[in-house]
Each structure stands twice: as structure tokens, then as C-alpha cells.
Design a protein that fits this description.
By secondary structure, the chain is of the alpha/beta class. The chain has helices at about 40-55, 55-60, 65-80, 80-90, 95-120, 155-170, 185-195, 215-220, 235-245, 270-280, 300-315, 335-350, 385-390, 405-410, 425-435, 470-475; strands spanning about 5, 5-10, 10-15, 20-25, 30-35, 125-130, 135-145, 145-150, 175-180, 205, 225-230, 250-255, 260-265, 290-295, 350-355, 375-380, 395-400, 415, 420-425, 440-445, 460, 465, 475-485. The chain binds nicotinamide-adenine-dinucleotide and (2E,4E)-2-amino-6-oxohexa-2,4-dienoic acid. Nicotinamide-adenine-dinucleotide (NAD) binds near residues 152, 210, 212, 233 and 418.
Amino acid sequence: MRETLHFVNGEFLRSASGRTFENRNPVDNSLIARVHEAGRPEVDAAVRAARAALDGPWGRMSVDERAGLLHAVAAEINRRFDDFLQAEVADTGKPVSLASHLDIPRGAANFKIFADTVKNVPTEFFQMATPDGTGALNYAVRVPKGVVAVICPWNLPLLLMTWKVGPALACGNTVVVKPSEETPSTAALLGEVMNAVGVPPGVYNIVHGFGPDSAGEFLTTHPGVNAITFTGETNTGAAILKAASDGIKATSMELGGKNPAIVFADCDLEQAVETTTRSVFANCGQVCLGTERVYVERPIFDEFVKRLGEAARTMKPGRPQDAATKIGPLISLEHRRKVLSYYEKAKAEGATIVAGGGIPTMEGELAEGAWIEPTVWTGLPETSAVVREEIFGPCCHVAPFDTEEEVIRLANDTPYGLAAAIHTTHLARAHRLGAKLEVGICWINSWFLRDLRTPFGGSKRSGIGREGGVHSLEFYTELRNVCVKL
Ligand code: NAD
Ligand code: 6OD
């Protein structure tokens, strides 16, 4: 049986305890590998290696040299594209067509773009007066934060890990990554890439395991960690914030969402249906930016619901490698139990089930997988848990609205504030809503168009802080002011 090991100080490492857990393929629930679970000794070794690397060749490199190495990391990911693709698809079950266009290319791009960003950002300079008339010069230098703990989710494993590791390394930090227990494989491959291109040992480390009383908790509470960057559920973020407060650690929190799409009667209906189909069902609904609430202006409500229902019914589930496959399984049977509990709630509360609502019939060994039907509901009250809580599955509730003021109120009536999508051809209205919706990112007539130079993050319970472009530099560096008396 294949084993997935930790990566510490440039070497793959077993757990001293011998403890392992299973990594299963959600397509058919088959066993992919046994993953070593880190205890305190492995986490301690990883943090010590990362601290030591700050004072080694990595710490002495010029920005240009570091950026050059990160470009080499990107090139090596692209050279081993098929290995990354196969590993990501086996861990997640997502269609090859999706992973090959999104996950793997973005995994490489996250190193290139942040290497270029860090080379091109100036710092501040102030000339000040002094009582003796000679003056003084102040300039700011950017220094790395130190050892950064990177805690990752399972929905876009390589993409979301490198979105943090890329800028952290570009800024001169070292990292200890805790991949999701569901998707450990591409993080391990990245260790091979780091060694192949000559990234010094200790700069990139991985510890595998779970959250509480496991690798996640041991890492976030470790005194040798300077900063924590986290992507995952809001409640997990709250637990990590508490753990970080003892050590006064810098934190960046990218958390959950319950994102609205708003469809006005003046929209390009075909485009609105096509985009909403993607925003609800892409990656089997397991995208933090995905739509789970759709509000449609009353005159086109029936037509929109009919078309979205038809689109849901054409989402063909199947093997990731099959070109006809439009949707993969959920990440695990456990996650399916959670999503199905909302499907049951919707039924019990009298929702109209426009499409889906259950488990599809799959043939042969696929019957063991975590498959679920793409689902569209109408008719639930806004107070329903189905409409208020993040489900993280391929489903949405569609409700009608009559006025702009009403839909702004409905869209904002949520503890979350991650993303929204507006469909309208009314230019002024699009800008008005863009400013009024309480979210970190608002798409107009589009969804998941992401330029890595733009700020990314959530409002309210969807997160704290912004990353992307220069905003990542703000998190992954500290500014030190140097004052020179002339
Ligand atoms: P999760 O919060 O369950 O787990 C995320 C990571 O945290 C995992 O590696 C897990 O092992 C670790 N963890 C859990 N408890 C911990 C603890 N006490 N201390 C330290 N680490 C701990 O999230 P998930 O189920 O992996 O991912 C889905 C969630 O992530 C959804 O809520 C989704 O909205 C969110 N998400 C947000 C963004 C964003 O950018 N805002 C992006 C992707 C996913
Ligand atoms: O595009 C990104 O960089 C990003 N952070 C996407 C997040 C997707 C959430 O599932």
C-alpha cells in the first residue's frame, strides 16, 4: 500500500508513532494511500527546520534569486503536470477537464505571479526636518514574518495551498503546511518539486493530520510559528484565532460563505443561466465562492427556474477521466451525509424540488462513491437553515424579488460576506449594487474571474484580511522603518 509521508527539512519522513490514516478516492471509495499522522515531535521538527532555514542560504538570497527559484518551481510543476493532475483527481474525484484548466495551472501560476509581484513593489521613503536643521531620512524595509503555518482545505487543494505558499516564499518566509486530511497528495508532490529545483531544505515543510489534538492544533499553537494563514470553515477559523491569540500570531482568515446571485429581468438570460449553472455546480458545489442563494426578479422567475432546473439535470456524473463527465462526487461519504441532511431538511420543510434532491444511481464500483444529485429548490422561507447555512454541495435555493432595495436587503441578510454575482445590463444599477453588497468580491455578469493581483478575502464571518497582489505582501512581510540622521 502506498504511504504518504511528512516532508521535513527536505526529506520525506514517517511518524515516530507509526500512526496513519486512510486517504480514499471519493469516486469509488477505494483506498489510495495510508497517510502518516504527525504528532507533536513531527510538528516540532518541521517548525525547527523552518526556523533554521530562515538563517541559512534562503535568508541570504537576494529577491531576484528567490524569485528565480520560484519561477523554477512553477516550471517544474508544469513539467510534471500529469503527475499533479492524476494525484489531485484521485484525491478529490473532480473531472480532469476542471483540474487541468483550473487547479494545476493555477498551482504553477501562484509561484510565478507572486515572484514577480515581490520584485516590483517599492517601499515608503520620508525626508523629515530636525531641530538642528540637518534633517533625517526614513525608509521602510520589508522583512519576512518568519515561519508561516499554512492550514489548507480540500476543495481546491493545490490551488489554495500555493495561493499561500507562493507569496509566503516570495517574501522570504519559510512555511510549514498542514494539507487537508482528505487531500494530502499534491502537497507531497510539491516537496519533490522543491528538492528538484534546489529550494534549500527547511523552506517548505509538510505535516499531515487532522485539526483538534492533531497536526493542525500542534502547529497553530507552536511557539516557533510567527503567522498563520488559514482557509476553511468559519468555526474552524474561530478555533484557530483563539489558539493564535496566546502567541500574538498574525493571522489571515479565508472562511465560509453563503453567496447570493442576483438576476434582474433585464439580464442576458442565456448568459445568466449559464454562469449561475457554473457558480452553483462547479466542483460539485464545493467552491467557497459558489452560489447557494439565487434571487430572480419576478417577471423572469419561472423561466429562469425552468432553465436552471434543466441545466442541473444535464450535469452528467461520471469518472473524472471521461470527457462527457460534467460533475464529480463530493469529497467524501462523510461530507455527503452532511449535504444530504440539508436535502432532507428542504424536503421536510416543503420545498419544491425543481431538480435532483437525492443520490444518483451509479454503476459497478462507482456505486460506492460519494455521488449526489445537482439540486435546485424553490419555496423555502428565508429563515430556513437550508437558505441560511453554508451547505458546500451542488445545490441552491431560488427565490423571487420585486425591487432593488428588497434584493439588497435579502442578499445582505446573512452572517457571511464572501462573494456575490449580479446579472443585469443596467450599468448604473450594477455599480450601485457592487458598492452596497457586503462582500469581499462582487462579480457583474460573470463568476470566478480572478486576477491574482486583486484583493481577495471576506467580510463579516467570511474572513479577516485580504490577500492577492500587494495585499499578500502586506500579510507575509513586516515593514521596518530605518531613520538616518543626516
Ligand atoms: P475545515 O475548516 O474543516 O478544515 C480546513 C483545515 O483546517 C483542514 O486542514 C483541517 O484539518 C484543519 N483544522 C480543522 N480544525 C483545526 C484546528 N482546531 N486547528 C488547526 N487546524 C484545524 O474546512 P474544509 O472542510 O477543509 O473546507 C471547506 C470549508 O472551507 C468551507 O467552509 C469553505 O467555504 C471554506 N473555504 C473558504 C475559502 C475562502 O477563500 N474563503 C476557500 C476554500 C474553502
Ligand atoms: O482564486 C483564488 O485564489 C481563491 N483563493 C479561490 C478560492 C476559492 C474557494 O473555494
